[in-house]
Amino acid sequence: MNKVISFSGPRPKSLFGYRDDYSWNELIEWLKQQLKNAYAEGFRTYISGGAQGFDQCCFWAIDKLKRTHSDISNVLYLPCRTQSSKWDDNGLFGKKNYLLMLERADKISYVQNEYSVKCLMERNHRMADDSDRVLILYPNDSWFDSGGGTAEMFRHCFDNKIPYQQITYDPYDILSTLEIQKIKVQGVPLDE
Q: What is the pTM of this model?
């Protein structure tokens, strides 16, 4: 059975910023190791949202994993065709790397043509609705009453009984404190 997993997490400003390529590459390698576990559980379709930050790290971790696991499908769910229009041309999260990501994706699904705030949330909801599990990078349990797309993804999973797995971390020491929590449905671990 082909199981589907999707991802949600912060933008660069909430993690390592836009210029710390070393830390982002360390996160990509860490994610690759975690995704090997998902592969062993039967996950073959991996959906990321293409946004700067954690979304793109997930895409590149999957891309690396795919080099040794050719049956993986690396899918992008994008909010709109103009997602990168205001981004810098260069850099880890620039337009050039974004276009390379589009070339390397096995499938691309667009929510709409032009940008709107609504298309970002709709993209997140579609990713979660099409998944057997959502892996979410979020430092703590404040998502229930916080703003932003990642917190909204949490609430959508919670409200719709979609299994999610949180990666927690200390915002002041991210790489050495990453920890994957138990898979939960509506806040209850699946093994309880």
A: 0.94
